[in-house]
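Subject: Sanity check before I submit

Could someone independently write out the structure tokens for this chain? I want to compare against mine line by line before I put it in a report. The sequence has 390 residues.
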Amino acid sequence: MLAGQLALLFPVVYMAVNLFQGNTDFAFAFVFFLITFIFSLGFVVKEIQKIHNDKAAGIQSDILIFCDYKLLYKSYRHEVIPMPPIQLATFQYSDRAECISLSGDYSDIRLIKGKQYKVKYYKNSGILTEITNYRGRKNKVTKAVSRLTFGEKNLQHKTIWHEVLIILIIYALPISAICFGGFKLFAFLQKTLLMDDSDILLIQPGFVKLIFILFGSLTFILFIHEKKEPVYIISAINNIYKRIGFKRSLSLMIILFLIVLSLLFNTYTKISDTQIEIHNFDTVKIYSYNNIEHIKIFPYSTPYKRQIKLKLGYNVFLDDGRSIELTRATMFWDKVLQLNDIFTAKGVIMEKSYLTYPDSIDLLINEHVDIDRGMDILNKILIVEESPAN
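---
Independent answer below. Compare away.
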């Protein structure tokens, strides 16, 4: 629920940027989403304040494994009213071979030996403040592996491969599918919301895919850290994770991810039949075709998986020193002829490079463009050697 409310950050930032740029169409919706987001943010702030107050009071939170329980009775020789016995439970830390005994009220929870609990207690006095069942790190994957291996003694060498396969199926595939769908949805929303009828080409940020891959990888690591026994690489990170927990960690990742997406959503370049618009998250700069100094169209080589591949460059150089790589647009090969005709009609200086016929075939294969269709395009935007058949 919290993560869903935090998703409101995306439209809030998007509409705030539009209002900052002078577009008042989103004013009413912005107020509505802002109030809802502030309500959600208040919940997050209260949780952070609670963590800070616990730390100031000396309260520590840990995931502990229950070991033993006993009652301690005091001597009542000089007391008229006997005192109730002290409830003392012994736990083992889940991340190290150490035990701790905590006194407190355990009447509201059923303690089972070997089961993990999320426990809050005063670090110095060992007095319990809160205990709840812990649902994470139950090693469900390990149990599934033991059922599939038909005995560890006979197929011990296959266990790790079964475990890796199950981890990929349970966690990696769903997370990858969600991130891939999110990336496609992001690109679709940009094209749908940002392009008008007069617009020809939209160049989106080139590293959006990397942001989705990074978020998916971190989410995968977070789920593995929660559901499996973690590998403690950096103790400081693990200590922070133990304090804020899985849900808060995931919510924090989603907040940062949506902030980055909100900024990237308003970072793009748009070309129409009359002008070029370069949008950053806080500024917009508009150029006419008279501001184009020249255009350079050229083939270039790039390393890819220990091979050298030939790609196409189509760069627009503006009079203020900026350059725009039109080939970064996903719709480039569908719109390049239309743009090329407009540039030619406007009298823009175009520097065309020479390309041999075999290299042109390699270039189209590397660009994943149909050969016949691609050759028609290259013949109009480059100087291409004629086919040997001609």
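---
OP: Matches mine. For the report I'm noting this point. The first strand starts at residue 59 and ends at 72.
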